[in-house]
Amino acid sequence: MKEHTIESCAKANLAIRxxxxxxxxxxKLILISVLRxxxxxxxxxxxxxxISPRILSKELQELEMNGLVSRKxxxxxxxxxxxxxxxxxxxxxDVLVAMEKWGYQHRKRIVQGIE
Amino acid sequence: MKEHTIESCAKANLAIRxxxxxxxxxxKLILISVLRxxxxxxxxxxxxxxISPRILSKELQELEMNGLVSRKxxxxxxxxxxxxxxxxxxxxxDVLVAMEKWGYQHRKRIVQGIE
DNA sequence: GTAAGTACTATCCTTTTTGTAACAGATAGC
DNA sequence: GCTATCTGTTACAAAAAGGATAGTACTTAC
Lengths: 115, 115
What we know:
Two copies of one chain form a homodimer.
Chain A: H1 6-23, H2 28-35, H3 42-49, H4 53-65, E1 69-74, E2 80-85, H5 93-114
Antiparallel strand pairs in A: 1-2
Chain A binds a DNA duplex through helix 4.
């Protein structure tokens, strides 16, 4: 498990690239993170994530294509749409938790370094 | 721990953003992943990661500024430079491992889905 | 002096991403 | 009819990122 053969490294690098292909970019992980607190409407997501509708629409389509987010149209007064994390998206939990922890620790480190 | 208050969610989202600020983008995590197999020279990194020298130079500077990579000039025949992960960069291990696992599983899932 | 290797930097250009603003279709309230 | 809300889309523009190609500087080898 601790061996660093050429093959195992190439495999690891490929896996990282694969992951970045799906959830890389500026918004994907942020959207998923925001959606972890529950289903959200389009404008709601736009506000909470601070993302313009144009980009949001594109990002949500890509997330949906990759099976990470589901889109449900609700038959309400003004028609509304609910975006929600899929079961499969939970497989990203480790990634998200690790990034949350790191970001939190890193910020602490930076702040302490300044003071 | 399982509460989803407004504050805890905002905190989590901020942490994700912080992490992305440091290791987001197309190359940072790939470079770190490549460097996990040991120190590398500039051209070596360029070849292994498939990144052009111009971008590589910029990315390495940013990684160095954030304390994730160290740069050592070696007094060899033709002068060489060794790039190496810092101690602090190991704090990203959980993130990298989680992403490696996910990328690997996701690829398996996709391949199976096609066959 | 010529070629080759290392580590970049500079220049130019293309692609991708992101943002802004406006607009469309549907429905409800006034 | 006018306005407002919700969900997007479209058109246009700006910015960021990325790639290709050379070129610089230094050193060793021939």
